[in-house]
Predict the structure.
Amino acid sequence: MDCIFCKIAEGAIPSSKVYEDDDMLAFRDINPQAPVHVLVIPKKHIASADEINETNSAAVAKIFEKIPHIAKLGGAVNGYRIISNCGPDACQSVPHLHFHILGGKQLPESMG
Ligand code: AMP
Ligand code: ZN
């Protein structure tokens, strides 16, 4: 499958890694929107949050169990925002489930 985040998960495309284990990879966004901008992806391809179901949700639970650790490794020591853009109206640009972790500054109150 021609998926850039699958290639990053395999190591075929380099990334600035923050955290990795058997199930997930966290790496710095190439176009950061905040001083801390980390993406967390499951290694197994899930297209978006709209594709989460009872057979693949364990991977999502594992990511959320690790997010507090990943956020601090990434440098978000005073809070952070977790975002997952899903589908065209949310401007999802990479069709592999990812959670943005944003922090390192006071973020705007508005989310949409
Ligand atoms: P979204 O628009 O929510 O689908 O987010 C996709 C994110 O992936 C954007 O913030 C991009 O800057 C980021 N991105 C795309 N390609 C790469 C890459 N090769 N390495 C790191 N981040 C990337
Ligand atoms: Zn993928």
Q: What stands out?
A: Residues 57-74 form the longest helix (18 residues). The radius of gyration is 13 Å. Residues 4, 13, 15, 29-31, 39, 85, 91-94 surround adenosine monophosphate (ligand 1) (CB under 6 Å). The helical segments are 4-10, 57-74.
